[in-house]
Amino acid sequence: MIYLVIFFILELMVITNNSFITNFDSSIQTILQGMVSSGFTSIFKTVTFLGSPLMDLIYLLLIAFLFLKNNYKQTALWIIYLLISGNIISFLIKITVHRQRPLNAILPASGYSFPSGHVFGTTLLILTIIFLVLPHLHNKNWRIGISVIAILWLILVAFSRVYLRGHFPSDVLGSALLAGTWWEFSELLYLRYHATIINLFKFHLGNQKE
């Protein structure tokens, strides 16, 4: 609920062109403008490609496949549901808010600006890795190390989108909040209907045996 409330407040401020948000965005963009160089641009173009919605889709489907292969069918289906439903929600918000992208983009991008598809997809990916994949690792140091790397990757992807002027800073902040909200909602939904899902699996498997 905290994520959701903060996200809606931020969305409302974006829609109304609130002065606090516009000043927040412009101040950070001004700072990053002084950092622009060919070296940084090459690095962040690579980062933004590896953190693109298409790549996040591939990563998450690969994780779902590995869970399915290891007989974690419910987890695999939940990841697919999270991915599909989350992207639908993100798209609907984009076309509703209708926010134009920043001017003078270093790497031009199509579509609307709020929220960032890159950061939304990457946040879902990182949450999936931390809460679903890493618990299967027995080595605590590995879990901590991978968690730190995953969070740093999310920060790097978010930074690349603002640096390349594909998004405003408030776009990437809103995306992370939206992804966190959708993750928590999907988790609660799964736990609420867990027994129903189990029964559906048993019914389906029973029919296959017959």
TrEMBL record:
Keywords for the protein's UniProt record, in alphabetical order: Membrane, Transmembrane, Transmembrane helix
CDD domains given in the database record: PAP2_like_2 (cd03392)
Domain Phosphatidic acid phosphatase type 2/haloperoxidase: 75-187
Stored InterPro entries: PAP2/HPO (IPR000326), PAP2/HPO_sf (IPR036938)
Transmembrane residue ranges: 43-68, 75-97, 117-137, 144-164
Pfam families: PAP2
Keyword Transport tagged: no
Keyword Protein biosynthesis: no
Top-rank taxon, per record: Bacteria
Protein name: Phosphatidic acid phosphatase type 2/haloperoxidase domain-containing protein
Organism: Companilactobacillus alimentarius DSM 20249
